[in-house]
Amino acid sequence: MIPPGAPLLRSFGWEQMPAIANLWVESWQEAMPEIDFEARRGWLCHRIGQLVEGGVRVETAVDAAGRVLGFVTIDPSSGYVDQLVVHPDHWGRGIARTLIDAAAAVSPASLTLDVNEENDRAVRFYTAAGFTVTARGTNPTSGRPTLRMQRR
Questions:
Q1: Does the pLDDT at position 4 exceed 80?
Q2: What are the pLDDT digits (tens) for 95-113?
Q3: Could you tell me the CATH number of the domain that includes residue 21?
Q4: CA distance 141 to 145
Q5: 10 Å Cβ neighbour count for 61?
Q6: What are the Cα distances from residue 107, in Å, to 31, 50, 76, 98, 133?
Q7: Tell me, what DSSP letter sits at residue 109?
Q8: Is residue 45 included in any domain, yes or no?
Q9: Residue 52: domain span
Q10: Proportion of the chain above pLDDT 70, given as a percent
Q11: What domain count does the chain have?
Q12: 135: region left, alpha or beta (phi > 0 left; psi from -120 to 50 alpha)
């Protein structure tokens, strides 16, 4: 039985793309307000298309009314998580953990992702979820430092 108020997991449908793009922009604007993520909305839509065409699964967390609260992308063959996003109004409510658990169900051997090193909230979340830093890098678009993290 699903607890009252718990998010429901749904496989991605293109009808969700406007809501996904909105929550992606709002989430990133909250996390890193110095970057104009509205200007990157088109990039996200294109990126999701590329991922889906490449066999990546997109799982969404929705409320009882079907509103998208968050989403995760997971490559079943590599375990790579390209995107994990939860609307800021729902941060701290277990939705990101539910989505990571959904990703782990798709790729049980391991999950790998890159996170902006300056995104302290995300780094703390991934560490608490069992991820460890395996490498450091640089975001090719922003030039900001990134961490490669993995959970086995």
A1: no
A2: 999 999 999 999 999 999 9
A3: 3.40.630.30
A4: 11
A5: 25
A6: 27, 19, 6, 14, 19
A7: S
A8: yes
A9: 8-107
A10: 97
A11: 1
A12: beta
